Amino acid sequence: MTSSSSTGDAVMTFLNRLIADDRGGAIAEFMLGLVPLVLALALIFEFGRAFWSHQAVIKGVRDATRYLTRVEDPSDPAAQAVAQRLLLTSQQAPGGVERWSSGSAPPMEVSITAIPNTGGTFRGPATIQMVKVAANVELQLPMSGVFTLFGGAPLGVVTYSVGDTGRHYGK
User: E strand or H helix at 76, and its extent?
Assistant: First the structure.
């Protein structure tokens, strides 16, 4: 039988040997550094993708607005279909790859407003038409699950709208 002092000495010897042993220290330090590295990479990926998508939407809205300000009738469904293709794919012809998604909302809303020009403030007819194109954007964030590993709440989907207005000139 061992005495309690010899058991205590054995435990202390084991603990001292464990504390003095530095094997595996490099992997422990690497794992501590890996957590902020993964978080930083996820943030860079998500925000870079979000900014790229936002820029694609802005470009598409400007292209669609520019197109509708130059057609004869901006309320014509055929003209609005071409404008929607410009908005989503940067192409007038059917086909192409959509650069972003609007989810369940319609991707584009067009409104045409008549502004009276009775005093001749602007060059042109007595009524000037303004064309407004608004895009509904639903941005999926695929890396949002990484943030839950570090105590954050997942965003999942961000929904916003982008708009542009231009004066209708016609052909």
Answer: none
